[in-house]
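Note to self: keep these together.
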Amino acid sequence: MMIINNVKVKKKIGDQKGLTLLELIVVIALLGIVISTIFSFQSFGTKIFHRGVTQADIQSSLRMTSDFIIHEVRNATEITLSTPANPDDYNQIYISGNKVKYKPAGGTEINKTDVIIENPTDVQFTLATTGSNYTLNFSMIGTSKTNTYDLSSDVMLNNIRTATILANSQSIYYKKDTTLAVGGPPPPPPPPPPPTTPLTANLSTPNNNTTVTIVFNKEITSVSQMANNLGVAVTTVISDLNKLVLTSTSQPGNNKSYKFSVTDVDGVITQYEVIYKNSGNWQGLTN
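Structure:
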Protein backbone atom coordinates (compact mmCIF):
# COMPACT_ATOMS: atom_id res chain seq x y z
CA MET A 1 0.00 0.00 0.00
CA MET A 2 2.82 2.37 0.76
CA ILE A 3 4.49 1.67 -2.55
CA ILE A 4 1.34 2.38 -4.49
CA ASN A 5 0.94 5.72 -2.78
CA ASN A 6 4.50 6.65 -3.58
CA VAL A 7 3.99 5.78 -7.19
CA LYS A 8 0.88 7.87 -7.36
CA VAL A 9 2.64 10.86 -5.83
CA LYS A 10 5.47 10.63 -8.26
CA LYS A 11 3.04 10.45 -11.10
CA LYS A 12 1.28 13.61 -10.01
CA ILE A 13 4.56 15.47 -9.80
CA GLY A 14 5.60 14.26 -13.18
CA ASP A 15 2.33 15.46 -14.76
CA GLN A 16 2.95 19.19 -13.79
CA LYS A 17 4.23 21.45 -16.64
CA GLY A 18 6.28 24.81 -16.51
CA LEU A 19 6.08 27.89 -18.79
CA THR A 20 7.27 27.49 -22.27
CA LEU A 21 9.61 30.02 -23.87
CA LEU A 22 6.79 31.34 -26.04
CA GLU A 23 4.55 31.91 -23.04
CA LEU A 24 7.34 33.74 -21.24
CA ILE A 25 7.91 36.01 -24.25
CA VAL A 26 4.19 36.80 -24.45
CA VAL A 27 4.06 37.69 -20.74
CA ILE A 28 7.10 39.94 -21.02
CA ALA A 29 5.63 41.64 -24.09
CA LEU A 30 2.33 42.28 -22.31
CA LEU A 31 4.14 43.67 -19.28
CA GLY A 32 6.16 45.96 -21.57
CA ILE A 33 2.99 47.24 -23.20
CA VAL A 34 1.36 47.92 -19.83
CA ILE A 35 4.43 49.67 -18.42
CA SER A 36 4.89 51.69 -21.61
CA THR A 37 1.26 52.78 -21.48
CA ILE A 38 1.61 53.83 -17.84
CA PHE A 39 4.72 55.89 -18.58
CA SER A 40 3.07 57.45 -21.63
CA PHE A 41 0.14 58.62 -19.53
CA GLN A 42 2.49 59.90 -16.86
CA SER A 43 4.60 61.79 -19.40
CA PHE A 44 1.49 63.23 -21.03
CA GLY A 45 0.15 64.34 -17.66
CA THR A 46 3.48 65.95 -16.74
CA LYS A 47 3.56 67.86 -20.02
CA ILE A 48 -0.01 69.05 -19.53
CA PHE A 49 0.80 70.14 -15.98
CA HIS A 50 3.90 72.12 -17.00
CA ARG A 51 2.04 73.65 -19.91
CA GLY A 52 -0.75 74.71 -17.58
CA VAL A 53 1.74 76.24 -15.13
CA THR A 54 3.47 78.13 -17.94
CA GLN A 55 0.14 79.33 -19.31
CA ALA A 56 -0.90 80.49 -15.85
CA ASP A 57 2.38 82.39 -15.46
CA ILE A 58 1.84 84.15 -18.79
CA GLN A 59 -1.73 85.05 -17.89
CA SER A 60 -0.74 86.28 -14.44
CA SER A 61 2.08 88.45 -15.80
CA LEU A 62 -0.09 90.03 -18.50
CA ARG A 63 -2.99 90.59 -16.11
CA MET A 64 -0.73 92.28 -13.57
CA THR A 65 0.63 94.49 -16.35
CA SER A 66 -2.92 95.26 -17.51
CA ASP A 67 -3.98 96.19 -13.96
CA PHE A 68 -0.92 98.43 -13.65
CA ILE A 69 -1.70 100.25 -16.91
CA ILE A 70 -5.33 100.76 -15.89
CA HIS A 71 -4.33 102.07 -12.46
CA GLU A 72 -1.73 104.42 -13.95
CA VAL A 73 -3.71 106.07 -16.75
CA ARG A 74 -7.24 106.09 -15.30
CA ASN A 75 -6.72 109.50 -13.66
CA ALA A 76 -4.17 110.90 -16.10
CA THR A 77 -4.54 114.64 -16.70
CA GLU A 78 -2.69 114.53 -20.02
CA ILE A 79 -2.04 111.62 -22.39
CA THR A 80 -0.59 111.09 -25.84
CA LEU A 81 0.44 108.07 -27.89
CA SER A 82 2.98 110.00 -29.96
CA THR A 83 6.38 111.09 -28.67
CA PRO A 84 6.11 114.59 -27.12
CA ALA A 85 8.78 117.28 -27.45
CA ASN A 86 9.91 116.71 -23.84
CA PRO A 87 9.34 112.98 -23.15
CA ASP A 88 11.27 113.00 -19.86
CA ASP A 89 8.54 115.19 -18.36
CA TYR A 90 6.02 112.37 -18.88
CA ASN A 91 5.43 108.96 -17.33
CA GLN A 92 5.95 106.33 -20.02
CA ILE A 93 4.76 102.78 -20.74
CA TYR A 94 6.35 101.22 -23.81
CA ILE A 95 7.91 98.12 -25.41
CA SER A 96 11.66 97.64 -25.15
CA GLY A 97 13.81 94.51 -25.27
CA ASN A 98 10.75 92.26 -25.75
CA LYS A 99 9.28 93.44 -22.44
CA VAL A 100 6.68 95.98 -21.36
CA LYS A 101 8.57 98.75 -19.55
CA TYR A 102 7.48 101.59 -17.25
CA LYS A 103 9.49 104.77 -16.80
CA PRO A 104 8.30 107.46 -14.37
CA ALA A 105 8.89 111.09 -15.30
CA GLY A 106 12.59 111.78 -14.90
CA GLY A 107 13.20 108.25 -13.53
CA THR A 108 14.63 104.93 -14.73
CA GLU A 109 12.76 102.19 -16.55
CA ILE A 110 11.28 99.14 -14.81
CA ASN A 111 10.22 95.77 -16.30
CA LYS A 112 6.47 95.21 -15.97
CA THR A 113 6.27 91.76 -17.63
CA ASP A 114 8.28 88.59 -17.12
CA VAL A 115 6.97 87.04 -20.33
CA ILE A 116 8.42 87.79 -23.73
CA ILE A 117 6.70 90.05 -26.23
CA GLU A 118 8.01 88.49 -29.44
CA ASN A 119 7.09 91.39 -31.72
CA PRO A 120 6.65 95.07 -30.82
CA THR A 121 3.29 94.97 -32.61
CA ASP A 122 2.12 92.34 -30.11
CA VAL A 123 1.30 95.30 -27.85
CA GLN A 124 -1.15 97.87 -29.19
CA PHE A 125 -2.46 101.06 -27.56
CA THR A 126 -5.38 102.98 -29.04
CA LEU A 127 -7.02 106.23 -27.92
CA ALA A 128 -10.71 106.38 -28.71
CA THR A 129 -13.82 108.30 -27.71
CA THR A 130 -16.93 106.92 -26.08
CA GLY A 131 -19.54 109.63 -26.18
CA SER A 132 -17.94 112.64 -24.51
CA ASN A 133 -15.33 110.52 -22.75
CA TYR A 134 -11.96 109.21 -23.85
CA THR A 135 -10.88 105.59 -23.44
CA LEU A 136 -7.58 103.79 -23.82
CA ASN A 137 -7.89 100.38 -25.47
CA PHE A 138 -4.93 98.03 -25.42
CA SER A 139 -4.00 94.45 -26.23
CA MET A 140 -0.97 92.30 -25.42
CA ILE A 141 0.30 88.92 -26.62
CA GLY A 142 2.79 87.20 -24.32
CA THR A 143 4.96 84.19 -25.16
CA SER A 144 6.87 81.75 -22.96
CA LYS A 145 8.53 78.80 -24.68
CA THR A 146 5.83 77.53 -27.05
CA ASN A 147 2.89 78.96 -25.08
CA THR A 148 1.13 82.20 -25.93
CA TYR A 149 -1.66 84.17 -24.31
CA ASP A 150 -3.41 87.30 -25.52
CA LEU A 151 -5.23 89.85 -23.39
CA SER A 152 -7.34 92.87 -24.34
CA SER A 153 -8.71 95.56 -22.06
CA ASP A 154 -9.81 99.18 -21.96
CA VAL A 155 -9.97 101.94 -19.39
CA MET A 156 -11.98 105.15 -19.24
CA LEU A 157 -9.82 108.25 -18.78
CA ASN A 158 -11.60 110.20 -16.06
CA ASN A 159 -9.76 113.51 -16.38
CA ILE A 160 -9.02 113.76 -20.11
CA ARG A 161 -11.13 116.34 -21.92
CA THR A 162 -9.09 116.65 -25.09
CA ALA A 163 -6.62 114.29 -26.76
CA THR A 164 -5.37 113.28 -30.19
CA ILE A 165 -7.04 110.09 -31.40
CA LEU A 166 -4.37 107.58 -32.43
CA ALA A 167 -4.38 103.82 -32.99
CA ASN A 168 -1.85 100.98 -32.95
CA SER A 169 0.85 102.69 -30.93
CA GLN A 170 3.45 100.84 -28.84
CA SER A 171 3.92 103.56 -26.20
CA ILE A 172 1.97 105.83 -23.86
CA TYR A 173 3.11 109.21 -22.53
CA TYR A 174 1.01 110.65 -19.72
CA LYS A 175 0.90 112.96 -16.74
CA LYS A 176 -1.28 112.48 -13.71
CA ASP A 177 -2.37 114.28 -10.58
CA THR A 178 -2.92 111.88 -7.70
CA THR A 179 -5.16 114.38 -5.94
CA LEU A 180 -7.74 113.85 -8.70
CA ALA A 181 -8.15 110.13 -8.01
CA VAL A 182 -11.77 109.02 -8.25
CA GLY A 183 -13.34 106.94 -5.52
CA GLY A 184 -10.56 107.25 -2.96
CA PRO A 185 -10.49 109.32 0.19
CA PRO A 186 -9.88 113.04 -0.34
CA PRO A 187 -6.32 114.21 0.16
CA PRO A 188 -5.55 115.77 3.54
CA PRO A 189 -5.78 119.56 3.64
CA PRO A 190 -2.49 121.44 3.40
CA PRO A 191 -1.02 122.56 6.70
CA PRO A 192 -1.90 126.11 7.72
CA PRO A 193 0.74 128.72 6.94
CA PRO A 194 2.89 129.79 9.85
CA PRO A 195 1.68 132.95 11.59
CA THR A 196 3.27 136.18 10.41
CA THR A 197 4.24 139.17 12.50
CA PRO A 198 2.13 142.24 11.63
CA LEU A 199 4.09 145.07 10.07
CA THR A 200 4.45 148.18 12.22
CA ALA A 201 6.18 151.49 11.47
CA ASN A 202 7.49 154.52 13.34
CA LEU A 203 8.76 157.91 12.24
CA SER A 204 12.45 158.33 12.86
CA THR A 205 13.86 161.60 14.18
CA PRO A 206 15.26 164.03 13.36
CA ASN A 207 13.56 164.81 10.04
CA ASN A 208 13.72 167.96 7.96
CA ASN A 209 11.59 169.87 5.50
CA THR A 210 12.37 167.55 2.57
CA THR A 211 13.26 164.19 4.12
CA VAL A 212 11.49 161.82 6.47
CA THR A 213 12.67 158.36 7.54
CA ILE A 214 10.26 155.57 8.51
CA VAL A 215 11.50 152.52 10.44
CA PHE A 216 9.64 149.19 10.20
CA ASN A 217 9.78 146.25 12.59
CA LYS A 218 10.89 143.84 9.83
CA GLU A 219 12.34 143.77 6.35
CA ILE A 220 10.43 145.40 3.52
CA THR A 221 10.96 144.45 -0.11
CA SER A 222 9.14 147.11 -2.14
CA VAL A 223 7.23 150.39 -1.92
CA SER A 224 4.56 151.86 -4.19
CA GLN A 225 3.12 155.36 -4.31
CA MET A 226 -0.64 155.55 -3.92
CA ALA A 227 -1.35 159.30 -3.72
CA ASN A 228 0.99 162.29 -3.54
CA ASN A 229 -0.75 165.34 -2.08
CA LEU A 230 2.44 167.09 -0.96
CA GLY A 231 2.50 169.27 -4.04
CA VAL A 232 6.11 168.28 -4.83
CA ALA A 233 7.76 165.22 -6.35
CA VAL A 234 8.89 162.46 -3.95
CA THR A 235 11.47 159.70 -4.27
CA THR A 236 11.51 156.60 -2.06
CA VAL A 237 14.58 154.57 -1.06
CA ILE A 238 14.69 151.41 1.08
CA SER A 239 17.66 151.55 3.45
CA ASP A 240 19.06 148.91 5.83
CA LEU A 241 16.30 146.51 4.72
CA ASN A 242 13.76 147.89 7.19
CA LYS A 243 13.97 151.67 6.64
CA LEU A 244 12.16 153.79 4.08
CA VAL A 245 13.46 157.28 3.24
CA LEU A 246 11.02 159.70 1.58
CA THR A 247 12.69 162.69 -0.07
CA SER A 248 10.81 165.57 -1.69
CA THR A 249 12.34 167.91 -4.25
CA SER A 250 11.39 170.92 -2.10
CA GLN A 251 9.50 171.78 1.05
CA PRO A 252 5.92 170.49 0.90
CA GLY A 253 2.92 172.56 1.80
CA ASN A 254 1.71 172.48 5.38
CA ASN A 255 -0.72 169.71 6.30
CA LYS A 256 -0.13 167.95 3.00
CA SER A 257 -0.02 164.15 2.88
CA TYR A 258 1.67 161.32 1.02
CA LYS A 259 0.07 157.86 0.75
CA PHE A 260 2.05 154.73 -0.08
CA SER A 261 2.07 150.95 0.36
CA VAL A 262 4.92 148.64 1.29
CA THR A 263 5.38 144.88 0.84
CA ASP A 264 7.14 143.11 3.67
CA VAL A 265 9.31 140.00 3.57
CA ASP A 266 6.24 137.80 4.17
CA GLY A 267 4.55 139.20 1.07
CA VAL A 268 1.98 141.20 3.05
CA ILE A 269 1.06 144.63 1.64
CA THR A 270 0.31 147.43 4.12
CA GLN A 271 -0.84 150.99 3.34
CA TYR A 272 0.40 154.11 5.13
CA GLU A 273 -0.12 157.87 5.07
CA VAL A 274 2.35 160.48 6.35
CA ILE A 275 1.54 164.20 6.76
CA TYR A 276 3.93 167.15 6.60
CA LYS A 277 2.77 169.61 9.27
CA ASN A 278 5.37 172.41 9.17
CA SER A 279 9.09 173.16 9.65
CA GLY A 280 10.31 169.57 9.35
CA ASN A 281 7.50 168.26 11.49
CA TRP A 282 6.15 165.06 9.93
CA GLN A 283 3.20 163.42 11.65
CA GLY A 284 0.20 161.21 11.18
CA LEU A 285 1.80 157.89 10.18
CA THR A 286 -1.37 155.79 9.86
CA ASN A 287 -2.38 152.64 8.02
